[in-house]
Known about the structure:
Mean pLDDT: 78
Number of domains: 1
Radius of gyration: 19 Å
Number of helices: 1
Order of helices and strands: HEEEE
Largest sheet: 2 strands, parallel
Distance between the termini: 50 Å
Helix content: 10-25%
Shape: globular
Structural class: alpha/beta
Amino acid sequence: MQHTTRFFGFLTLLAGAFTAAAATIEWTGGTGAWTNDANWAGGVVPGASDVALIKTGATCTSRQP
């Protein structure tokens, strides 16, 4: 039983190591394309787990596939 507990504890730690932390990324582009990394603080387009912060008055465009 003790070996099973250690094994599952190890798996939990391993899974946590591969989980990406969500980031809050601010739109700095005024008006422009969502996919243009130059429009985002730090030059990074937000991913699925990130929070995109777009202030009032800014406009970003996005195309849906």
